[in-house]
Design goal:
The chain is of the alpha+beta class. It is built from 4 helices and 14 strands. Helix 3 (about 110-125) packs antiparallel against helix 4.
Amino acid sequence: MIKRPDEIDRLAESGRLLAQVFAMLDALPLQGRSTLEINDIVERMIVDELQARPASKGQYGFPYVLNASIDNVICHGMPSADDVLRNGQIVNLDIADSSTTYVVGNADYAARKLVQVTYQAMWKGIAAVRPGARLGDIGHAIARHARSHGYSVVKEYCGHGIGQEMHEEPQILHYGHSGTGMELQEGMVFTIEPMLNQGKPAIRQQPDEWPVYTRDGKLSAQFEHTVAVTGSGVRVLTLRPGETPLCAVDAA
């Protein structure tokens, strides 16, 4: 669970490469592209340009390098040639252990606000990370921000530790009570990846869990970063070029 400095450096290098992929996606026009086309663009960049291996491909039998979750899809959206992104939609693109929800074209105010608040909620959770804090502090900060804007938090899916395996302990819940749960220690590395719904938190799941929908059909958004607990606070290992943290973070 506790990572050595050299292990954190290797995770940070992976995070740096992943951040470059998201920088490319930030500038990529999404409207009119299929989610399968976006998947293929990302795979070519990872393999050909970055000379790296897509971490998601092959995990648990998953054949793609990313998840693409549109509108009321909470997570585990499968790339498809039939899913062509339209003006006004939102889509979460999740690559290994970082993700962003993008607004496609001119979405309405309600969709844009959900995306903005979800991003803020992730940073509220990151701001709670420091040695001596508790896991419940992270979830409490996220859920409080979500509720203050009228949104609900999906409880079935959570963040997780990461290292040699993609999913390790501890589980990072996105709801909870401050001052409860495991104490954070320097060297812990985990993801914070809240999923916020416009409506109720209930999910509708396919038998194979691909994909997962909101039960009431309303929109859902998600953001994710991988972080490390440092001696004085938190380091964001997947911070994107030009991204301005919404809380104090430690430099590399």
